[in-house]
Design goal:
The chain is α/β, with parallel strands linked by helices. The protein is 35% helix and 21% strand.
Length: 335
């Protein structure tokens, strides 16, 4: 049996890594990182990694939008689709920072009000806005735009300006984004949110554009995740889907390859909540790494792979039962 752990931002950026690692109580994780074979992954982003893992052919962007909207029950078999995730942009000094979109708690009524206003305007641009979930919006276009975009996860907690759409059609999409922001700025639903002490929904983030891929496949028998992207990929690949477990119970695992995904560390680290990040990593060590390392020691697990990132690189750590006895091995990445 094989297990893969996909945990973005389990490895902190090098400029903060030493101090953070000293404060994390995670001996099993540190043993894994020290004794595993370290492979610098070829992928430059988590979205590219996921598309490659699930056998999705590269387009101008990583085409996650049509897979996501199709998983939500919308027919995405034709035209071009683009994620238009509702977000809050916050001005900080000379930066325009994208806050964690998962904390907005947009209600169904708010979403319907926002979408009604935006859809009418976007229709003039030849764009159709769909909102199958209050916090998951998508744009459909019958023309494939010549733009490249950055994923939502890669921009959270960062200045968005360097990551705005690029390409020969970028000027048009910058204008569309500006017009969306103006409509949201004066929207009564945002006035009501601010009256309740909530931040306004003042923009959308465009990412994941493409047409529906011809094929999606995966080398896993099951995917354990709460992430919408991961669950959509698992659905389209035909492998089993289960919620992200608080504790990995070896008794629930059968033969084959299993993928466990935990993506809640990214906003904690990006938004500067380092204590919560440390607590979450300590909990992952207790609830995931201890049972999996025990399975490795008893050879019930033949391979344990950890895939993570530090915000710039995707990294892969692969460990086999025999590697646990290589006490002389020190991972160069952690030096």
């Amino acid at each position: 049996m094989q297990c893969t752990l996909y945990i973005p931002h389990l490895i902190p950026p090098r400029d903060a890594g030493d101090a953070l690692w000293r404060s994390v109580d995670a001996p099993q994780l540190k043993t894994l990182l020290a004794r595993a074979a370290y492979i610098r992954d070829k992928h430059t982003s988590n979205d590219a990694l996921l598309c490659d893992t699930f056998g999705i052919a590269q387009q101008l962007n990583n085409p996650l939008a049509p897979l996501l909207v199709s998983h939500q029950g919308v027919d995405a078999s034709s035209d071009y689709w683009l994620c238009a995730t509702p977000v809050h942009l916050e001005t900080r000094r000379n930066a325009l920072v994208l806050a964690d979109a998962t904390t907005l708690r947009i209600t169904a009524a708010e979403s319907a009000a926002f979408v009604a206003t935006l859809a009418e305007h976007l229709r003039e641009e030849g764009l159709t806005l769909h909102a199958p979930q209050p916090d998951q919006w998508y744009l459909r276009s019958n023309i494939t735009p010549a733009i490249t975009t950055a994923s939502l996860s890669s921009v959270t907690g960062r200045d968005v300006r360097p990551f705005l759409p690029k390409g020969t059609d970028s000027a048009r999409w910058h204008r569309v984004l500006t017009e969306i922001q103006m409509l949201l700025h004066t929207h009564p639903a945002n006035d009501a949110r601010e009256a309740r002490g909530m931040v306004p929904v003042n923009s959308v983030w465009l990412w994941g554009g493409g047409t529906l891929p011809a094929a999606v496949s995966a080398p896993f028998v099951s995917v354990w995740s709460d992430d919408a992207v991961m669950r959509a990929l698992a659905h389209h690949s035909g492998c089993g889907i289960a919620p992200c477990p608080a504790v990995i119970d070896p008794a629930t695992l059968e033969g084959g390859a299993h993928l466990f995904s935990y993506e809640s560390l990214t906003p904690l680290l990006r938004l500067g909540n380092t204590q919560a990040w440390c607590n979450a990593v300590t909990a992952l060590n207790q609830n995931w790494l201890i049972p999996l390392m025990d399975m490795l020691k008893s050879r019930r697990l033949s391979t344990l792979t950890l895939v993570c990132s530090d915000g710039s690189d995707v990294m892969r750590f692969v460990i086999h039962p025999g590697d646990l006895f290589k006490i002389w091995r020190k991972n160069r990445y952690l030096q």
